[in-house]
Design brief:
About 0% of the residues lie in helices and about 45% in strands. By secondary structure, the chain is mainly beta. Bound molecules: zinc ion (ZN).
Length: about 110
């Protein structure tokens, strides 16, 4: 079983706290296996030159999201419409859920 990141989940809406994409918002596409970095849609995009020929690909410039440190991201609560710290709560059935520390809303 794959252990989930305690704070961040795929498809979370996050804001970047610092760096060239500071203040930008995107959806989490992927979290790396060490759970330290995440790829966020259309953020931290780097241009790479690809050579023609490799695996039949065309040459040219490809734009690709580069992973961002999770410590540099903050989850956005849909209810507050603002970045928030993520809290944890255990439901009656024992399952753990994430909550917004500001309004208590469940983050799914
Ligand atoms: Zn909230």
């Amino acid at each position: 079983m794959v252990k989930k990141h305690p704070i961040l989940k795929k498809n979370d809406k996050v804001i970047v706290l610092s760096g060239k994409d500071k203040g930008k918002i995107g959806a989490v596409l992927k979290i790396d296996s060490e759970k330290t970095r995440a790829i966020v849609e259309k953020l931290n995009v780097v241009k790479r030159h690809s050579k023609a020929g490799a695996k039949g690909a065309k040459g040219g410039i490809i734009e690709k999201e580069s992973p961002l440190p999770i410590s540099n991201l903050m989850v956005i609560c849909n209810k507050c419409a603002a970045p928030t710290r993520v809290g944890k709560r255990i439901l009656e059935d024992g399952s753990k859920v994430r909550t917004c520390k500001k309004c208590g809303e469940l983050l799914n």
